[in-house]
Amino acid sequence: MFNTRPAVIATIAALSVAAVPAPAVAQASGDLAAVQKHLQSVETMTASFSQADRNGKVLTGVLTLKKPGKLRFQYEKGVPILIVAEGGALTFIDYSVKQVQRWPIKNSPLGVLLDPTRDITRYAKLVPGYDQRIVSVEANDPKHPEYGRITLVFVRNAGAPGGLMLQGWVALDSQNNRTTIRLTNQKFGDAVSDNTFRWNDPRRTGGRK
């Protein structure tokens, strides 16, 4: 099996891009307002994901989201890595080396997925495109370009929350390492137990969950 750690780290780095603190009331308009509405409408979401790095290496798994503040990237069997957002932090667990790392997510683009009160206009902008069915939003902190950037991609879908379906995102770190996440089989509103976001600490148990 190829080394999965660099690709996963690149994803975390982009998801943890620092953003400007936002007010509780959204000020978005047009398609940006539609994106805000979608994010506000989603309470739970599950989806299959595929993650590709710039070398073409692909990992797959299942993404689970629950507001407020919970998210889990469960990678395919054989990948000893887990990413969980809970308690205001993004936690990266590598069971192969029994290592746990944490990053704050309060003011990150990932925080927008988990906190509907965030005003995305404070750190995001629409990306022009030729396909009117696609809405792309780029988020970054211009004061800290070293944090990289993330572009969220939506497709217009009348049956999805807020009329948009999150299709995935492209993460670019400060070394121009690109990681692409694509989502399929998106489901919204299903009951998700808080136990889904629990994990075993390999530093204590040596196991994984």
From TrEMBL:
Q: Which Gene3D superfamilies match?
A: Lipoprotein localisation LolA/LolB/LppX (2.50.20.10)
The cross-references to InterPro entries, in alphabetical order and at most eight, read:
LolA/LolB/LppX, OM_lipoprot_carrier_LolA-like
The UniProt entry, under Pfam families, shows: LolA
Q: Which residues form the signal peptide?
A: 1-26
Q: Which SUPFAM superfamilies match?
A: Prokaryotic lipoproteins and lipoprotein localization factors
**Any idea which UniProt keywords this protein has?**
Lipoprotein, Signal
Say yes or no: keyword Lipoprotein present: yes
Q: What is this protein called?
A: Outer membrane lipoprotein-sorting protein
Organism this protein belongs to:
Sphingomonas aurantiaca
